[in-house]
Amino acid sequence: MSDQLGFQTRHFSLNNPQGEGQDDVPNLLRRLASTLEEMGRIEIRDLVLHDDTDDEGNPWPYVTVYYDYVQDEEPPQPTAYGQF
Fold this sequence. Notes:
Layout: E1 10-15, H1 25-39, E2 42-50, E3 62-69
Antiparallel strand pairs: 1-3, 2-3
């Protein structure tokens, strides 16, 4: 049996607030860009745009970001649950 190397990475998901405009992908991408800038220097491993719906069946896309902090920097401390 061969040795397997493990790989761990951080991730988070982001969507627009529920309600009018929840399906606005350009706005979602602007919010994502702003969030990434606030996080500082990170290495993006992958970005995935998901097509989801709310309980009423209305479109509600979200993005999942897989990332790591740059090796020589300390990660920022969150200011609130899930927020940087």
